[in-house]
User: Fold Sugar isomerase from Spirosoma montaniterrae.
Amino acid sequence: MQVLKNQIDSHNESLLLQHEAKLSFTRSEVPGAEEIIQKLTAFQIAIPSWALGTGGTRFGRFSGGGEPRSLEEKIEDVGLLHALNQSSGAISLHIPWDIPQDYRATRILAAQHGLTFDAVNSNTFQDQPGQPHSYKFGSLQHVDKTIRQQAIDHNIEVIKHGIELGSESLTVWLSDGSCFPGQLNFRRAYQNTLESLNEIYAALPDNWKLFLEYKAFEPNFYSTTVGDWGMSYSYVQKLGSKAYTLVDLGHHLPNANIEQIVALLLMEGKLGGFHFNDSKYGDDDLTAGAIKPYQLFLIFNELVEGMDARVMNHATDLGWMIDASHNVKDPLEDLLQSVEAIMLAYAQALSVPRRALEDAQQNNDVVTAQEILQNAFRTDLRALVAEARLRAGAALNPVALYRSLNVRQNLINERGLKTVATGL
Amino acid sequence: MQVLKNQIDSHNESLLLQHEAKLSFTRSEVPGAEEIIQKLTAFQIAIPSWALGTGGTRFGRFSGGGEPRSLEEKIEDVGLLHALNQSSGAISLHIPWDIPQDYRATRILAAQHGLTFDAVNSNTFQDQPGQPHSYKFGSLQHVDKTIRQQAIDHNIEVIKHGIELGSESLTVWLSDGSCFPGQLNFRRAYQNTLESLNEIYAALPDNWKLFLEYKAFEPNFYSTTVGDWGMSYSYVQKLGSKAYTLVDLGHHLPNANIEQIVALLLMEGKLGGFHFNDSKYGDDDLTAGAIKPYQLFLIFNELVEGMDARVMNHATDLGWMIDASHNVKDPLEDLLQSVEAIMLAYAQALSVPRRALEDAQQNNDVVTAQEILQNAFRTDLRALVAEARLRAGAALNPVALYRSLNVRQNLINERGLKTVATGL
Amino acid sequence: MQVLKNQIDSHNESLLLQHEAKLSFTRSEVPGAEEIIQKLTAFQIAIPSWALGTGGTRFGRFSGGGEPRSLEEKIEDVGLLHALNQSSGAISLHIPWDIPQDYRATRILAAQHGLTFDAVNSNTFQDQPGQPHSYKFGSLQHVDKTIRQQAIDHNIEVIKHGIELGSESLTVWLSDGSCFPGQLNFRRAYQNTLESLNEIYAALPDNWKLFLEYKAFEPNFYSTTVGDWGMSYSYVQKLGSKAYTLVDLGHHLPNANIEQIVALLLMEGKLGGFHFNDSKYGDDDLTAGAIKPYQLFLIFNELVEGMDARVMNHATDLGWMIDASHNVKDPLEDLLQSVEAIMLAYAQALSVPRRALEDAQQNNDVVTAQEILQNAFRTDLRALVAEARLRAGAALNPVALYRSLNVRQNLINERGLKTVATGL
Amino acid sequence: MQVLKNQIDSHNESLLLQHEAKLSFTRSEVPGAEEIIQKLTAFQIAIPSWALGTGGTRFGRFSGGGEPRSLEEKIEDVGLLHALNQSSGAISLHIPWDIPQDYRATRILAAQHGLTFDAVNSNTFQDQPGQPHSYKFGSLQHVDKTIRQQAIDHNIEVIKHGIELGSESLTVWLSDGSCFPGQLNFRRAYQNTLESLNEIYAALPDNWKLFLEYKAFEPNFYSTTVGDWGMSYSYVQKLGSKAYTLVDLGHHLPNANIEQIVALLLMEGKLGGFHFNDSKYGDDDLTAGAIKPYQLFLIFNELVEGMDARVMNHATDLGWMIDASHNVKDPLEDLLQSVEAIMLAYAQALSVPRRALEDAQQNNDVVTAQEILQNAFRTDLRALVAEARLRAGAALNPVALYRSLNVRQNLINERGLKTVATGL
Assistant:
């Protein structure tokens, strides 16, 4: 299944008049619209290979159909997304679920879809068939050096796969922690983890980054050894200049002010990137922007301000990735919705008049500061996001085109109804 | 200080061209815009008398200036708001802070400002000077019947004041509860409270409603005797057909799905009304829509759907009130921002295509259902809200006019810099 | 694998002197110790059939060995627990995981282990192989009557199995809800669920109870159709006198005061029973008493007070069940720890001097009320719990005996290392 | 009002037999009881001067009587507590509420009561009468250097008072933060705060410590500039070796694992001390151990383990202080209950068999690790705490003696019924 250029063109043609009217009005309302469009065009969000199948919970999983059965089909799926929105030009692999059989062929296939390889992800939260030692009681934190070594070696192997594919970063998410008081000595768990991370860090090429993700809870329900931004920060400080903290929006305690965390990590030069999703209760892994779109905007507001203050390249100096689960939606539709919500929040943040906001802050004019942010959020900038797609050769309305092309049915016809992708 | 018609006209004139361009574009995008504008015009949000001064916390209070020193000045302040937005045509009094000296004069003053009297509020969470018995250990729940009787009598007296002013509802918010395990027998606290409420209910005129507000915590930090919607619901069921639950958006445990609660109370015929505000952590009493605007929209989405299903009058069949605190803003500006956010959420909810949403729900098409709600929320409907104001003779941009008229400075000149309004 | 009487006797003999010294001291400290021991002896906690295997999360599962492969082996496992503590004399089955092939043989087997059949549990949160319709979008709430009927029929079939085994209650836990705003019409979901429950209720024998469990979130992450105690209460009120609310300790929003909910449900005559476990973040399903033992005591404090006020039989008038998951422990050891913690909390609650507490409450003597509860909790009552076991022929230290008998190794030898029990 | 030695003796005599029986039994159960008693004797918990009056909330305050009217009477109150428990041998002053008029006289008075001066506390969360600049928009974070300087100068003045009294630490708790998105530039607020702290740090004597407290929310309800342990840690790292993080148990987001934070801060050499209290919802400031006593024990478990690992002196190398509010209790009784709960948790932590716990952890024997901690917690060690008091000349049951001596009535007689202590 491929989306052809003429299918996109014909879709766009049918929506063009309406789009242009809306764009024209938006331009009249938003100073700097052209610059925003250009930044949106440059902005790419990586798709994780494990988000292409139906998600599940510990209570069960209700599979959809036509899920990708191989790394090649996963690349094809991301290629489909990218053809539709030209904003998903990277794929993030998960080892061992996605071990390439032939690096060159894999690279060529990705290139044909216009995709690069984003961060590679290691997996030490599950036992693989035939694995000598179990991660039941942790991996990099484990009391037994043999098991830590197995996990270290796995991470180094992941780096090697990444090098072959042209990745330049390793994301380490550890489920290491404990379920009961007394189970762990927190200090030793920290020190073991640090020692293990140091070994992995030593294997990192010079042009690579190590992203250390934190998470408050799940699958461990008493403590997590990289449990909050402060812990991740303390590790990456010790590891060195190539180590950064990765923020997953769903990995916090209730009510956390994530935008402040983001601003401070940026200030410290230790923000590495993002796993986007949304949530109401815990790590719910819902579609980005589906529950708290204003929070998503506020986070981008800090990102734009903070990256500009450090003269960073928005598109390339941080890692942008989705990490969601799709229990009740077609995964590809869900990903299209997530990308749209992220692009919209980015556009809104770009439209904030920085100088005016700064003035309001300098004068403690809280009412005006709020008005400025709310105005940026309430203004409808979807035409700018659509225009960026249009210019890049993508669809004005990706979800609508996806549906009108019967993509899912085509995938089912090709792959079958009962396929189950690896992942969560 | 009064806002004159010609001041509003001149303000509107200066913004008219821009407004009309925006309105025209919005009309082209939103089917039924005219009907939405009419419903917005009819919609009035009551202002609580205690929200006209600077708020504080237990750690202190940083007063602003020009705060109203009397009931008359409070009415004047609400009159100012109403002149600016024509959407704040009611005031909600708090007894004993606002006991009228002369009912007739008070009614006439309010009428001159175009205001009616919304729900009257009793206060049994503080001791007043000279009060025979203390509410330290509760009021309607108290183990001592004498103290319960004092609180009952106070509520009946509040009803009497309300009758004289033309109010038609009593809001009962109880801080009753406990700070420590063992302090209360929960069952007896419930039964005492129910017995007390029954006596108050008996004093209620036939055309009145009793609103029973619930709150999860604060100022009691272990239990609250009307602690969640389920408890309030169980009381009002027993009290009778004039008793309803009142929802304050800040009175829930973390992550509560308030919109579902609202839908179910409406279904049961037991939703009485709202105290609007916003919050991140607890009962933070921030400006409505300042933190979670999508949640506010989702709540209105349930309200519109549910009220229409019961053929209710949006404007009059529920009580709409703000209950916020203004620690770092000019209270009047804050209230203008709250009203704007509420009107906008209402407009968005009105614009939801009900039939299409229902179809999506019938088909379990979660992606489309989300698109429908997000489209309503992302579309900029501020021009409809502004048009409703324009037609009603109010300002296109109330906050801007308030500032350009130097209202606060005028109030300070009239009333002084060090005035402190009664309230929280 | 069976635990023999002489093994228990010899274990007890080795600990007897120490036990008697401790018991004697405890008796000297606790008035009414004898009565407490007798009530503890009568108290039985049902073991759910799905808690006998290693639990997992959506991220994976680390199996132990020797897990029961059949209903017969599950009964055997509960029999082992009951032999060790004589407090686990019931098993709660889950259909379709535990459909008996031969009712009579199953009943006889259970009786040989001294077990009765507690509540039977239906399952409409997973699709079973060959099932005509999917529960992906709910079961009793489903927009499609055909699917609701399938779920209704399943529940009625569960009742039938229960009747054959001598159960007298049906526990309905629904994962029904939604993951995204707009997905559900809350009102219709409620009404569909109520209609479905009514059909199930109609099939309930006269001497049966229906327990309707509520849960705040998971596996749905936006709304749950029976989401809190208030919702469950509103359903069971409408269903009739055989319908009750079931409380699972892990099914609440953060910081909920569960003991107050318990007291009010008891007051209303609508508390049906419990699923015991403990948690820090969500439905963590940890060992009872492992995280918040004081809360567990406070809940029992309300239970004892409230049941006595209604002259209820502690042992039989409510359903007592464990519902936990054992990701990092031997499930049988975990269950022994849970039962011990529950018995201890019950003993502490029984030891509270009711009259003194009531006096303190009457006098608003908060300090004394706290002292009374803390004294009950801080006093070491483990000897009373042990004595109850001793008198019933169980082990003084069940976990120690379990280990010294190498029960797990024996089960592995019998059943194999790679068995995986049905369950979560 | 003073508690006389013979009053204590006579109280102790009446309880001695019972105490000795209990002590003797406890000794038989707990290895190392004697060492525990000695450590308990050495352990002192500072009483904050602002906790001696009735607390309140933003909704009101229900005063008790006999509250201290001056610094001298506050010292007298702490002296009373210390006479009763010999565990409260320090007072922590709050400037400007407690500015001494005569240092020498104040020191002598304290010495007469056996008290030393613990950390001094600055106050930049309220405006004082006559203060030139307002802290409405922050103090050390303020956008205006003039206001920052005022706050810096105040802190330096507090240090000077402390030097005169023999204090050796400054506690800085900042309410600085924001109530609305956009109000603050997080990065600049951080940098201003850091710059201000640097100036204060420069004024710190060599033998002093600076404690930087963090708090998630309240009185600011959107962001707090020192908002969590990670932020505090990042500041104190930059400040230098005399700067430490201070942990207040109520200053976290819901469900935080405080014991892990404590363990990691200790590991980093950056834990400074504690503000003890308990809470269910937010910074509820309830009596220590009143809500989550097991958590309090788990925190002490980390403290004992971690301090021993660093060969620290339990009594002197960290700052131990209560910070609670007493809305419904006699403040002095509440403080006695808090001290008792803290001492008990410390005793329990001391009784944990470290080697056995370590072995269980090394073997991933989660069940045994839990048993070890639960055994320490379930064993009744109150006799050891009482014995420590007895040996130090304090009362076996401080609350009981306080009541039998009618201390509160005496204080009312001396000071009056309507006194209101400064504080919260």
The longest helix of chain C spans residues 5-29. Chain C has a mean pLDDT of 97. The two ends of chain C are 24 Å apart (CA to CA).
